[in-house]
Amino acid sequence: xxxxxxxxxxxxxxxxxxxxxxxxxxxxxxxxxxxxxxxxxxxxxxxxxxxxxxxxxxxxxxxxxxxxxxxxxxxxxxxxxxxxxxxxxxxxxxxxxxxxxxxxxxxxxxxxxxxxxxxxxxxxxxxxxxxxxxxxxxxxxxxxxxxxxxxxxxxxxxxxxxxxxxxxxxxxxxxxxxxxxxxxxxxxxxxxxxxxxxxxxxxxxxxxxxxxxxxxxxxxxxxxxxxxxxxxxxxxxxxxxxxxxxxxxxxxxxxxxxxxxxxxxxxxxxxxxxxxxxxxxxxxxxxxxxxxxxxxxxxxxxxxxxxxxxxxxxxxxxxxxxxxxxxxxxxxxxxxxxx
Length: 339
Ligand code: DAH
Hints:
Number of helices: 11
Strand content: 15-25%
Order of helices and strands: HHHHHEEHEEHEEHEEEHEHH
Number of strands: 10
CATH class of the largest domain: Alpha Beta
Helix content: 25-40%
Shape: rod-shaped
CATH architecture of the largest domain: 2-Layer Sandwich
Radius of gyration: 42 Å
Bound molecules: 3,4-dihydroxyphenylalanine
Number of domains: 2
CATH superfamily of the largest domain: Bira Bifunctional Protein, Domain 2
Strand order of the largest sheet: 1-5-6-10-9-8-7
Distance between the termini: 81 Å
Largest sheet: 7 strands, mixed
């Protein structure tokens, strides 16, 4: 038998094979028990020893060659099959999913309300559309009072003749003080987070819309020292560092005495520009004016309380080093993506 002829033929045929069933036929034909090669091996026994050895070696080499041709071809066909169009390569890196996230003001609002909740404050909400009475008069700010200039107001058109029902967009969260006290008895401690609106020109530190968190704690023997202790804890919790707190006298018609609260961060922040020795104003506060207690029928000789109104944007600007309040509502994705 011409082994070289056999080898050539087998090599030729296998190179044309395109699927596994043809390959299996090839295997049976060239490597099977009844293959030409096997029959050849069987016939060797009849040959003289020297011839047997020579031809046996040759045939063995060819069988090894066929085996390796077969193995390679099978691997080739299998991998080709695997990479067909519906193949999913699970080792490929995944595509990045674009995830949304919370607005910086939502983050800071949650931080602040969480801190007050830890100190036992309940969260109350109030209407954004308010009456003139609760926004001003009930807080000792009558129409003629010069303090009304501090709250440039967006009025809502209405036919109301009664002053109690003249409507506006609340200029601060303070109206909830009287609203809450009208229907609740002390002792209590509440915070009122919410949107406020002012009709004024916008600039880096003024917006037409912003957030405040009002606070009110009424009980027996409540003093400004209690307020200071609570605020010190809360700001430490919000800024995650030691913070100094300072009171400066200020006038608000619904508190007496009234103060402005400043803070000073002790640690260097990542913003090198921000001077750590700077006092930064974060809220107005004071002891609730007895007029308010009288208005809601509380005994002024028994109850005292403190109130405060905290600027949420102000805290966010200090914490995240934002130098323009208008960025919060700019919807600029480059700004928002940083949080
Ligand atoms: N409502 C004030 C404002 O808008 C802030 C404020 C000052 C709130 C003193 C208070 C307070 O509760 O006691 O600017």
